[in-house]
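Customer escalation, tier 2.

The customer says the design service returned an amino acid string that "doesn't look like it belongs to this structure." They asked us to rerun it and document both sides in this ticket. The original structure tokens are below, unchanged.
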């Protein structure tokens, strides 16, 4: 049984060990969206200066994680009652705020990875990059934001901002 998992574990170990820049380049190509590579790298540079990190702290005017969490629950993006990872937890939902190398609102982002994914998943540079590329595609397709400048503005202030 474990022998069959060895290749999968090797690939996962490689992906988890990628630095944020390489993870971003790979995610854009794996998703078949190399046109978003430059935008995702610009977001990476702006949000974390290319560093791997968790919760973003010390930013003035940052929306608290609980605000994102409540909005995501209302939108049906978090599955309370069916997913143990989506309950508020000891921090009273603050972990659902801005985090990861690409400055993702975890509450809005984990849905791009699966139905029951914890906020901390976006701290993994490859998963952060994957969500970033998928969100850029969503901004383009769902909201009609065809220009990089329009997507960059929506990234900073929201689609309706």
């Amino acid at each position: 049984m474990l022998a069959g998992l060895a290749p999968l574990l090797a690939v996962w170990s490689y992906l988890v060990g990628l630095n944020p820049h390489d993870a971003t380049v790979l995610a854009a190509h794996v998703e078949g969206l190399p046109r978003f590579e430059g935008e995702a790298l610009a977001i990476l540079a702006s949000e974390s200066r290319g560093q791997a990190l968790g919760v973003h702290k010390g930013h003035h005017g940052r929306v608290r994680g609980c605000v994102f969490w409540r909005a995501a629950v209302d939108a049906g993006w978090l599955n309370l009652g069916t997913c143990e990872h989506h309950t508020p937890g000891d921090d009273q939902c603050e972990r659902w705020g801005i985090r990861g190398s690409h400055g993702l609102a975890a509450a809005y982002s984990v849905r791009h990875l699966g139905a029951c994914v914890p906020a901390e998943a976006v701290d993994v540079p490859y998963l952060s990059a994957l969500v970033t590329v998928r969100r850029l595609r969503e901004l383009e397709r769902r909201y009609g934001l065809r220009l990089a400048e329009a997507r960059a503005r929506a990234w900073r202030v929201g689609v309706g901002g």
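Tier 2 assessment: The sequence is consistent with the input. DSSP finds seven helices and two strands in the chain. The mean pLDDT is 87. Sent an explanation to the customer and offered a walkthrough call.
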